[in-house]
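#struct-help
A.M.: can someone run this one for me? Single chain, 223 residues.
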Amino acid sequence: MKTIKQGLCGIVLFSAALCASADIEENKDYRVLPDSVTKSELVQAAPGSVEVLEFFSYGCPACNSLAPSFHAWAEKAPANVVVKRVPVIFFEGWDVLAKAYYTAAQMNALDKVDLPLFDAIHKQQRQLTDAASVRAVFVENGANGADFDKTFSSFAVDHDMQQGKQLMQHYKVFAVPTVIVGGRYVTDLELAKSPAHLIEIVNDLVNKTPPANAQKAAARSGK
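D.P.: on it. Structure tokens below:
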């Protein structure tokens, strides 16, 4: 996760002064989700945290272009920012790729295989369409093959898959990459136009989002 995309505004730190850019504007750079979405029980975050959800797929070229920047950004996130990623299933075969992500997460192997999975598809032109082809990428990058075999078809991975589908449906995600900040703000590459600007937008949204417990207090007071 140490790869940094060239051209990103330095190393994407959380300071507006580091990247000179135009003001981030609602309905131009991001949208505000309706209360029916943000106040759902599905929108949960630990008290004091700001949750950032990235919806993506290893099979998506745009997600591949964002991946190095997003990884570099996530590594520099403040301690109260919780980054979660949700692999989507739009096309035939993407269920295998979603299982690859959740398997890596359950194995604590994302640092070994996450970017290599993108590279296998988009640089090496490999077809990751079944457990065996995915397993090969894991093993090539230092993950334990026996652990992969136990995890890939496990209940835990199936549970994660179902939760991911719920979130995708809840937020009405129809394109990737899409990023949700604090359960309220949404942006994507169509709005941002470039990976670098998408990171700038996410920074701005994180800075304007109150921590989860403050959000709940504001909701109770009707603000």
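A.M.: thanks! The chain has one domain: 16-221.
D.P.: also worth noting: The beta strands are 31-32, 50-56, 81-87, 178-181, 185-188.
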